TrEMBL record:
Lipid bilayer topology: Multi-pass membrane protein
Segments crossing the lipid bilayer: 133-152, 158-178, 190-210, 216-237, 298-325, 345-367, 387-407, 413-437, 458-479, 499-521
Lineage: Eukaryota, Fungi, Dikarya, Ascomycota, Pezizomycotina
Source organism: Coleophoma cylindrospora
Location of the protein in the cell: Membrane
Any one Gene Ontology cellular component term annotated for this protein: plasma membrane
The keyword Transmembrane helix is assigned to this record: yes
Keywords assigned: Membrane, Transmembrane, Transmembrane helix
InterPro entries: Pur-cyt_permease, Uracil/uridine/allantoin_perm
Name of the featured protein: Uncharacterized protein
Xref: Pfam families: Transp_cyt_pur
Predominant subcellular localization, coarse grouping: membrane
Residue ranges, compositional bias (Basic and acidic residues): 568-581
Keyword Transmembrane among record annotations: yes
GO molecular function per UniProt: nucleobase transmembrane transporter activity
C-alpha cells in the first residue's frame, strides 16, 4: 500500500511562504526562493554598494572605540592602529574566503570552467553550512550565529535609540531636559525609551525591503557615516584648539608582553568582524559581477575599520583634554557635549552627528544582523519563513529581552557574548577549508536541497561528523581560558589564558587545518582530497545545457519527500538557462 503523502494542513496554508505561480511542491522543509540561487534581476550590487556595506560595518561605535581600548591595554597609539589594520585585513580575508560561494565559478578537475562555460552559484551562508556540517548539522551553525545576532541586534537598537535621543535633544530643548518618569528598576530613562521606540519603528519598516533593493541605502550610508565621522573628529580637534595629546596607557609592559598584546589586539579585531565575514556569501550572491565585492573585502575592511579607530583615538584624546573624562563611545561623547555645552553651535553639530550615527546603527544592524538572520532562519523553516519574517522575528526577540539591561548592567552574560568569537572563528575556518581545500570550489547544488540519503550532504543522519569533530577539538583548547574570562575558573594556568586571548588565530587557523587534515585521511562524499580520487561528478551531463553562462539552483523540482527530479532539472536547464552579464 502506498504511503500517504504528507501535506500542510489547510489551517496553516495561509501562513506559508508562497509566491505567484508557486505550488505546494515548490517549497518544502529545505527550500524557498530566498535560499535558492539569486535570480539575475536581483544581482545589482556594484563595487560602490559593497563599499557602502563595509563602511556601514566598519565605521561604527565599536570601531571608534577599538583603538582607545587597545591603548588602555598597554599599546602605543601607533601599535594599536597597526594591530587594527592587520586585524581588519584578516577579517577581510575571511570575508573573501566565505563570500566566494556567492560568486564562485564552478571549475572542473583541469582547473578550467566546466565545458568552457562559467557557472555561478549565487548561494549564501546556509548552503555553505549544509555542505560542510550536513543538512541537519547546518541547524547547529545557524542557531549559534542567530543567538548572538539577536542579542547584538537588540544592543545596536538601543545605541540607535540613544542616537535618536541626541537628534531630538538638539531640536527640542524640552526633550533635552525631560525628567525621567520611569522607576529605577526599568534600567532605562524616559528620553532613552522614546528614542529606542523611534528607532525600532523606522528600523522595522526597512525590514520589508528585500536585500537586493538595499543598495541605495548602503550608498547613502557610505556618504552620511563618512561625513559624520569626519565632522565629529574635526569638532573635537577644533574645540580643543586644533590639537590633541594622544591618550597614553598608564601600564608599563616589557617587549615580550607588548608583542603578545599586539597579537591580542589583532585577534580581537579579526574576531570581532569574523561574525559578519562568515556570512559574506549572503551578500555577495547579490553581486552584479564577480569582482564587485573583492576589492572591498581585501581593502575596504581594513581601511574603514582603521580610519574609524584613528579618528576615535584623536577625538577621544581631544575630549579628554577638554572635559577631563575619557569617553570612548562617540554617542556618549555627543551626549556629554550637549549636557555640558548646550549652545546653538553644539546643538547643530550634535544634530548632524546624531543623525549620522542613527543612520550608522540602522545600516550596521541591517548588514550584520537582521538580513543575515532572516536568510538563515528561512533555511531552517523555508515553507514558513522568508527573509522578512526571519528579520522581524529577530527584532521582536531583540526588543523584548530589554537590551539596555545588558549595556547598563554589564556582567557575566555580556562577557560571554563578547567572547563568542571563540565558537564562531572555528566555524569560519572549517567552512572555508571545506569549500576551498576539500571540495575545490565544487558543489553538487541539487543535493543541497535533498533531505535524504541520496544527497552527498546527508552524511550520517544529516550530520558531518568530521566538521563537528574539528570544531570540538579546537573549541576545547580555548575553553579553560573562556571560563577564566567569565570568572568561572580563576586559577587557570597562564598558558590557557594566553590561548583564549588570541582565540581568533587558534580558532580560524586551527579549524581550517584540523578539518583539512581529517578530510585528507577520511574524505567526505564529494571531497577531492582522499588518496583515491573520487570519480568526477556529472556536472556536465546533468546540469550544463546551452548558454555561455549558467546558474545552478533555480531549476530544481523537489517534492515533499525531499527528492529531486534530475531529468526535469536537466530539461529546465536546457530551456531556461540564465545568462550572466
Amino acid at each position: 500500500m502506498k504511503a500517504p503523502k504528507l501535506s500542510v494542513p489547510d489551517t496553516f496554508k495561509h501562513v506559508t511562504v508562497r509566491a505567484e505561480g508557486d505550488t505546494d511542491e515548490t517549497f518544502n522543509r529545505w527550500t524557498n526562493r530566498d535560499v535558492l540561487t539569486v535570480p539575475s534581476y536581483q544581482r545589482n550590487y556594484t563595487t560602490f554598494a559593497f563599499a557602502g556595506w563595509w563602511v556601514a560595518g566598519g565605521t561604527n561605535a565599536t570601531a571608534w572605540s577599538t583603538g582607545s581600548s587597545n591603548i588602555a591595554n598597554g599599546l602605543t597609539a601607533g601599535e594599536a592602529c597597526g594591530a587594527i589594520l592587520v586585524g581588519g585585513f584578516l577579517s577581510g580575508l575571511v570575508a573573501f574566503l566565505c563570500g566566494e560561494p556567492g560568486v564562485s565559478d564552478l571549475v572542473n578537475d583541469r582547473g578550467t570552467t566546466t565545458n568552457n562555460r562559467k557557472v555561478l552559484y549565487h548561494l549564501g551562508f546556509p548552503m555553505m553550512s549544509r555542505s560542510t556540517f550536513g543538512m541537519y548539522g547546518s541547524y547547529f551553525v545557524i542557531m549559534m550565529k542567530t543567538f548572538v545576532n539577536i542579542i547584538f541586534c537588540g544592543i545596536q537598537c538601543y545605541w540607535g535609540g540613544l542616537a535618536a535621543r541626541i537628534v531630538l535633544s538638539c531640536i527640542f530643548p524640552s526633550f533635552a531636559f525631560m525628567e525621567n518618569t520611569l522607576p529605577a528598576s526599568a534600567a532605562i530613562n524616559t528620553p532613552q525609551l522614546i528614542g529606542f521606540v523611534i528607532y525600532i519603528i523606522i528600523f522595522t519598516g526597512l525590514l520589508f525591503i528585500h536585500p537586493s533593493k538595499l543598495q541605495p541605502l548602503l550608498l547613502v550610508s557610505f556618504v552620511g557615516i563618512s561625513c559624520t565621522f569626519i565632522g565629529l573628529f574635526a569638532y573635537c580637534i577644533g574645540a580643543n584648539g586644533g590639537s590633541a595629546s594622544l591618550i597614553a596607557s598608564s601600564k608599563v609592559i616589557g617587549s615580550t608582553e607588548r608583542a603578545f598584546r599586539f597579537l591580542q589586539a589583532i585577534s580581537g579585531v579579526a574576531g570581532g568582524w569574523t561574525g559578519s565575514a562568515i556570512r559574506q556569501s549572503d551578500w555577495t550572491r547579490f553581486a552584479k559581477t564577480k569582482r564587485a565585492p573583492v576589492i572591498n573585502q581585501i581593502l575596504g575592511a581594513p581601511i574603514s575599520i582603521t580610519v574609524a579607530s584613528v579618528f576615535g583615538v584623536f577625538a577621544t584624546s581631544a575630549a579628554q583634554n577638554m572635559y577631563g573624562v575619557t569617553l570612548w563611545n562617540p554617542i556618549e561623547l555627543m551626549q556629554y557635549i550637549l549636557t555640558n555645552n548646550y549652545t546653538p553651535a553644539a546643538r547643530a553639530g550634535c544634530f548632524f552627528g546624531g543623525l549620522g550615527f542613527f543612520l550608522s546603527q540602522i545600516s550596521v544592524n541591517l548588514v550584520q544582523n537582521s538580513v543575515a538572520v532572516g536568510m538563515d532562519l528561512s533555511s531552517m523553516a523555508p515553507r514558513y519563513i522568508d527573509v522578512t519574517r526571519g528579520s522581524l522575528t529577530m527584532v521582536i526577540i531583540g526588543t523584548v529581552i530589554n537590551p539596555w539591561r545588558f549595556v547598563n548592567s554589564p556582567g557575566t552574560f555580556i562577557t560571554v557574548l563578547s567572547s563568542f568569537g571563540m565558537f564562531i572563528a572555528p566555524l569560519a575556518g572549517i567552512n572555508a577549508a571545506d569549500f576551498w581545500v576539500v571540495r575545490r570550489l565544487k558543489w553538487r547544488v541539487p543535493d543541497l536541497y535533498i533531505g535524504n540519503k541520496s544527497s552527498i550532504y546527508w552524511y550520517n543522519y544529516g550530520l558531518n561528523w568530521r566538521a563537528f569533530l574539528a570544531w570540538v577539538l579546537i573549541v576545547w583548547v580555548s575553553f579553560p581560558g573562556f571560563l577564566w574570562a567569565v570568572g568561572g575558573a580563576p586559577n587557570v594556568a597562564l598558558a590557557w589564558q594566553r590561548i583564549f586571548q588570541v582565540t581568533w588565530f587558534v580558532g580560524f587557523l586551527g579549524g581550517f587545518l584540523v578539518y583539512s587534515t581529517i578530510c585528507f585521511f577520511n574524505s567526505p562524499p564529494g571531497g577531492k582530497m582522499s588518496l583515491e580520487r573520487h570519480a568526477p561528478f556529472p556536472y556536465e551531463s546533468d546540469f550544463i545545457e546551452g548558454g555561455e553562462h549558467v546558474t545552478l539552483g533555480q531549476n530544481l523540482d523537489i517534492d515533499e519527500s525531499g527528492s529531486v527530479d534530475m531529468s526535469a532539472a536537466k530539461e529546465k536547464l536546457a530551456r531556461e538557462s540564465v545568462t550572466e552579464d
